[in-house]
Recover the amino acids of this structure.
């Protein structure tokens, strides 16, 4: 099943735009898990079990696994394997390299780890992206305007063809004729989101930055939805994962994800009226 | 010992600007190694032993290890451990993410794997780079103008402050006031290299694209060296690693690295006259 089919299914079934970001920070894990053989894996397996009927997708963030070496890789693979087959997984990796190398990153994501989509950095241009587009059941989420303050340094530069993030959105529409892709737009830039949605009416948009980074839910929904009232993945990581550090962490995570789901849906309902 | 001290030492001792790129492609390894417990690791350990008195640095390319999962991670760690302590290692990862995540990528590179430098994608701006600059003994090689044809798509866009790659070179000079950084410039763009060297006279420049990608040695030396006649790492991967697929692969790799070393040094000598 393709990424897009899994996403559409999950949005419908769980009535949700919540993407649960999996950023397992060893310094923030519940203490009672620290004695288990692989605390990250134990933690995330419980998080997934507690949110699988609330999420429209999961987004493991490679950095947090990579920082733990072999144990981190095992936790990443174990977590991916614990996510139900019909829920889409976006590997957050920001991959970007020359074609020959990009092929190996695509193989790592799609064949070795078995995810459904991957975040891709478009700085190196077409041939760095093509190996990801070749996976017709996947989806390459291309960085467009990221959630961090520093995004202005480069992504907002004015070019001969408009602001760089606008150029990247245009390019993504062009690249999407070759293979499935989407955009990454920080929820911290809700006003720019309407410009980007106008450039790319049909691309799925991954929106990080809602929870700990403070993005605004209402404007995100208003400006982000496509003409079918869908097409967004609103990611929250820390605000869900670390809602509690006690033995009730999974239940607290479920509550945080459910609250976000309801806030997003309520903003959508208000728009329809 | 810092990256820069190791680099300066190695350039002097081995009289070399050759950076040996470690891109272990499972489909190209010598057949007699395929039956060993970890063929990648066996292959690269021999490559390192055969070139350690010729190289000024090693550059493992994460994609090729990542595509092999756990075995790949073990090969990467084993290879890093097999490289002599006084030779610098650049992890080619093209890392780039928001600050909180970038901290974990920096920890993966510098603490978990124990490398001396890392390639970094600057698209996301200052706060995505700062966690790498915080390692004062490391070096963040920032993408400037990459070796691939697609580099023109984005990196050559004209902005309000010049071509994007020029802006990135200027930014790198600015960022280098905070912590050690360098630039990645494809050896396939020797003419642009003089522009970049003029903008960043003191930054080390990593130059991929000489071997399989066809960069020109003479112009690279002419335009790339700093005022001390140093400051470049000329990377070759495939042309060294796969010089032979037979039992003599390590000796053939040594010969290929030695030939490149001599060509670079001979171009430098001609410049001096």
């Amino acid at each position: 099943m393709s990424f897009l089919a899994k996403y559409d299914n999950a949005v419908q079934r769980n009535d949700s735009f919540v993407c649960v970001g999996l950023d397992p920070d060893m310094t923030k894990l519940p203490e009672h898990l620290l004695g288990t053989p692989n605390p990250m894996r134990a933690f995330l397996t419980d998080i997934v079990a507690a949110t699988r009927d609330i999420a429209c997708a999961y987004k493991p963030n490679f950095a947090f696994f990579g920082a733990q070496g072999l144990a981190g890789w095992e936790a990443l693979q174990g977590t991916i394997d614990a996510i139900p087959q019909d829920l889409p997984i976006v590997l957050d990796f920001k991959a970007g390299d020359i074609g020959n190398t990009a092929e190996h990153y695509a193989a790592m994501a799609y064949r070795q780890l078995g995810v459904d989509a991957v975040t891709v950095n478009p700085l190196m241009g077409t041939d760095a992206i093509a190996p990801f587009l070749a996976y017709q059941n996947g989806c390459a989420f291309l960085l467009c305007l990221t959630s961090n303050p520093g995004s202005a340094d480069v992504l907002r530069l004015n070019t001969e063809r408009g602001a760089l993030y606008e150029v990247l959105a245009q390019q993504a529409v062009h690249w999407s004729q070759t293979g499935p892709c989407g955009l990454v737009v920080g929820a911290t830039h809700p006003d720019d989101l309407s410009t980007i949605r106008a450039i790319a009416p049909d691309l799925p948009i991954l929106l990080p930055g809602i929870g700990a980074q403070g993005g605004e839910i209402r404007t995100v929904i208003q400006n982000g939805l496509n003409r079918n009232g869908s097409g967004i993945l609103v990611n929250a990581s820390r605000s869900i994962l670390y809602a509690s550090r006690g033995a009730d962490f999974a239940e607290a995570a479920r509550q945080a994800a459910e609250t976000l789901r309801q806030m997003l849906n309520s903003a959508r309902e208000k728009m329809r009226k």
